[in-house]
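Bumping with the actual sequence this time:
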Amino acid sequence: MRLENVKTVITGATSGIGQAVTSSFRKEGARLLLTGRRPTLGNQDPEDAYLSGDLNDDSFVRTLAAKAAQDFGTVDALVIGHGRQFDAPLVDTSLAEAREVLDSNLLSAFLVMKYFIPLMSRSGSIVCISSRFGLVGMPDQTLYSAAKGGLIMLARGAAIELAGRNIRVNVVAPGLTATDIIEASIENRPDPEAYRRLRESSIPLRRLATPDEVADAVLFFASGNAGYITGAVLPVDGGYTAF
């Protein structure tokens, strides 16, 4: 197993890509401390620890770090997988909405790094889950792109800052992924199949990613197979950002 007894914290673990990452890491033998906003974790293994809360809240992140210190002592792998989607034209976005998008996707990731880096062991790994829109622009995605692009630069800066401690920091940038939320949004369209074909037509591989495919990339960065990789951004987007 690639992560046997690797002490791992995963944020955004309750659904979608985060849920797939949790399942993948569990199969590979990791010890897990998970967090999300939901009161309980539906797929929780008896050996997993779960703490529900808001990562925009400084006191909660400190509590989560204290839980990790109590349970693990040191942390070997940190997956920052939480975030909030937001679609709106720039001129129609309020300042409050902009702050919420930046808080949920960027500043909360900073808080997690701030409190967990002191707990990390040498040769540890941090993996941030960004988005294809952190690499390219798109109408109505401007604030989301700014937040996810900021997450990429936060990770790359941290990779240089932490290299002396042999802590690697990398980014996975998924494209459109067939999570339950995305599938439900497609099914709610007047003609779901036509809408699916429309979305797929913008992707060179002509299909959506599966959550497991994104989780495979996260697993790679967290494992020893990526021991000499830091500061990298890996698009898992079917070729979308290769245009």
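The tokens above came from a reply further down the thread. The mean pLDDT is 96.
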